[in-house]
Structures are given as structure tokens and as C-alpha cells.
Write a structure and sequence with these properties.
Strand order of the largest sheet: 1-2-3-7-6-4
Structural class: alpha+beta
Order of helices and strands: HHHHEEEEEHHEEEEEEEEEEEEEEEE
Distance between the termini: 48 Å
Strand content: 35-45%
């Protein structure tokens, strides 16, 4: 059987290449096997689809998305103003699970194809009011379901699974890869109190890249959550299908920008989603790469408002076949959603890139 590192690095999954992983805490693995979901009868599936469509229409009509995600709306005082934006990339789920006298309902998801936020109603948990609480995720994870994960493995290594004596090798490989993948699927969580409405929401966030092939079957597994002094062992598990709904704007062109603390660059592409912004550029002449480590997306201008970026600004460098380098500056996820169509300029270390100089793509 092939070496684990070679197989993992060549697999299109949520696992980073193992030879590139230099940081991060490795917590204990979740070893419990998760059963596959049984396929429903066509009639049941049709009924479920009809219920989901009805729920989506109801949510939009009643402003439920801005109720579920009010704390990341553009305006906390008027979250309903973000309803259309939320609904454009949102999906109603409506699944409930109960454990230890606590009921969690996974109400809805926002997913732009790269970043996912889930909102849950929690009932039966005695927590003091008027507190924002960071939740320790324990053995929780969010990502592709076990069934979807194994299906992808079979597509890539199906021949190995059918080679008689090597079938057991494949089974062991699949089990090991699955357990290892859970480490990298650990989400961020917050327990947020709405003072005006008088209710709590558990929100789960993680970067989840979408892939081709239509809706993705996802699983949210909550286990051993620590909320203040209380530990919810659970588990609470939700398996659901989502289709990425990108709400984005893309600009392309050729604009030269020069700042006080970075050399002139040539911007060729800008992409903005409600959660993230990225800018592709090249240098005008050979330059030491380290000079661009300080270059970050600091601000976004939306109308007359200047919105601060996130703490997660970063840079990627891609080596081209001709020896040149393409840089990609990224910022996000933002603390609030932002209407991509309202953004008119990007602030780079105090220098503004006016998007009017680029061409908006249809």
C-alpha cells in the first residue's frame, strides 16, 4: 500500500499537505465510526425538497436570516437591512438534536463557496445572560460528511479497493485518512446573546472550500463543547446538503498602484465576497519578495464608509512557468458581512486602489 503521506498529499480533501504542516495543535482523534445515511425513498425526498423550498421562502419573507445572523449584519441596529444579502447566500436547514436535556436546532447556513457560517438555536442550557462567550470546540468538526469523503476516496483509489487482498489495505487507509482529516475540520464557535431579542445563538464558522459536482453533503459534529464552566458532551450531529451560493463581484484590468512603503505593483484582478476580499498583482520589475510581506488589504470603502479589514490578512506567492511571480493579497473573514457591490475602493497600507479603474465582470 502506498505511503500515507504520499496518498494524503495527492488527495483533494480538507487535509493540508502533511509535509507542509509546521504548526497547529493536534488534538485527540475522533475514532467513532459514523454510519452512512440511508437513502430515502423518492417520495420522501420530494416531500423534503418541497418543505425546504417552503422554508426558504418563509425565511426570506419574514426576515429570518437577519434574525439568525444579526450579529454579523452590516448594521447591528438594523440587521434587517442585510436580509437580502443573507438570503442570497443562505440555506434554511431546520434540524434538531437533543442530548443531556439540551436541544440544538441548526437553523441555517451562509456559504459563499469558501467561508461557512452556521447558526443554531440552543434550548435548555442555563447560562447567565448579557455575555458573549467563546466556545471551546472540544472534539467538534465541520466538513464533508463521512459518506461524501469515502465517495471521493473511491473515485480516486477505487482500483485499490477492488484488488482482492488489498481491499483491507484500502479500508485501513480510508479510516486513517478520515480520522486525520477531523483535526483540520475543527471550527470556531461563539455563543452570542442578543440583548434586544433576549435569546442566545450558537454560531459555528469555518473556511470550507466548495468543489464541482453540485450540492455538497456536509456534517456538523458537536461533542464536548465547553461553554463557560459547563461541558456539553453530546454528541449533536447534523448532516445536510448545501450548494455554494457565491455572492461576489470580480474586477479585472491593468492598474498600477504605488505606496509609500511598497514598490509599484500592477493589479490584474480583484474579487470581493460578503466575507472576503482578494487582489492579484505582479511587480513592475524584479523585486525582493520580502518587500511585499508588509503589503496588506487594510480597509475597504463602501459608499462613504471606510470598513476596517480583519486580523487575518495574508499573502500568497505563485511561481509562474516563465519564472515570474504572481502575488495574491487576501483579507477576511470580516467581522461583518459587506455588500460586494457597494465596495468602491481597497485600502493598501494607506494607498487606495479605486475599483473604477478596473472593469466589472458580468
Amino acid at each position: 500500500m502506498k505511503d500515507w503521506y504520499e496518498l494524503t498529499n495527492g488527495l483533494e480533501t480538507d487535509i493540508p499537505p502533511l509535509d507542509q504542516v509546521t504548526e497547529g495543535r493536534i488534538r485527540k482523534r475522533v475514532g467513532a465510526a459514523l454510519t452512512r445515511r440511508r437513502k430515502r425513498l423518492p417520495l420522501a425526498a420530494a416531500i423534503a425538497a418541497a418543505v425546504l423550498l417552503t422554508a426558504c421562502g418563509y425565511a426570506v419573507a419574514t426576515g429570518q436570516f437577519s434574525h439568525w445572523f444579526w450579529n454579523i449584519s452590516q448594521d447591528l441596529q438594523a440587521p434587517e437591512a442585510s436580509e437580502e444579502l443573507f438570503a442570497g447566500m443562505g440555506t434554511v436547514i431546520g434540524q434538531s438534536r437533543t442530548a443531556e436535556g439540551v436541544t440544538m436546532t441548526l437553523d441555517a447556513a451562509l456559504w459563499d463557496g469558501e467561508y461557512m457560517v452556521l447558526s443554531l438555536t440552543v434550548e435548555g442550557l442555563d447560562i447567565p445572560e448579557n455575555h458573549w462567550i467563546s466556545v471551546e470546540s472540544g472534539e467538534s468538526w465541520l466538513g464533508s460528511s463521512r459518506a461524501a469523503y469515502e465517495k471521493k476516496l473511491l473515485e480516486q483509489y477505487g482500483a485499490l479497493a477492488r484488488e482482492g487482498e488489498r481491499e483491507e489495505d484500502f479500508r485501513q487507509m480510508a479510516e486513517q485518512l478520515w480520522e486525520d482529516s477531523l483535526v483540520w475540520k475543527r471550527p470556531d464557535m461563539d455563543y452570542v446573546w442578543n440583548r434586544q431579542g433576549g435569546f442566545y445563538r450558537l454560531q459555528v464558522q469555518r473556511q470550507v472550500a466548495g468543489g464541482p459536482g453540485g450540492p455538497a453533503e456536509m456534517t456538523l459534529h458537536l461533542e464536548n463543547l465547553k461553554i463557560r464552566e459547563k461541558i456539553l458532551e453530546g454528541p449533536f450531529e447534523f448532516t445536510f446538503s448545501l450548494e455554494p451560493k457565491p455572492v461576489e463581484v470580480v474586477y479585472t484590468g491593468d492598474v498600477v498602484v504605488e505606496g509609500e512603503d511598497f514598490p509599484a505593483i500592477r493589479v490584474s484582478r480583484v474579487r470581493i465576497t460578503p466575507f472576503r476580499a482578494e487582489m492579484e498583482f505582479t511587480t513592475l520589475e524584479p523585486t525582493e519578495e520580502d518587500l511585499f510581506r508588509c503589503l496588506k488589504i487594510r480597509m475597504l470603502r463602501a459608499g462613504e464608509e471606510e470598513v476596517g479589514g480583519s486580523d487575518a490578512s495574508g499573502m500568497r506567492v505563485e511561481q509562474q512557468d516563465d519564472g515570474s511571480r504572481t502575488y495574491r493579497a487576501m483579507d477576511g473573514p470580516f467581522r461583518r458581512v459587506l455588500d460586494p457591490a457597494a465596495v468602491t475602493a481597497i485600502g493598501l497600507n494607506g494607498t487606495w486602489l479605486e475599483l473604477s479603474g478596473l472593469e466589472l465582470q458580468p
